[in-house]
Design a protein that fits this description.
single chain, 3 helices, about 40% helix, globular, GIY-YIG endonuclease, alpha+beta
Length: about 80
Amino acid sequence: MTAPPESSWFVYVLLNDGGVTYTGIAKSVPARLAKHNAGTGARFTRGRGPWRLLHMEGPMTQGDALRREIAIKRDAAFKATLKSG
């Protein structure tokens, strides 16, 4: 079995019915979304679902994905644009 390529990471933004966003990184966004909605994802998302995918970027390296995740979390205007669009 071969290892997946280094540039197989994605940044994603989720939105719940209450208008709350969650930003994270994953190699498989559909699988990660399913975990969030099943209550087995990040502690922040538990009990706040259901979640839907609002935005996704990638593929990129894990380091680039982490840097982009931080940038998105700091950019309130970007998230507001996503919610309104």
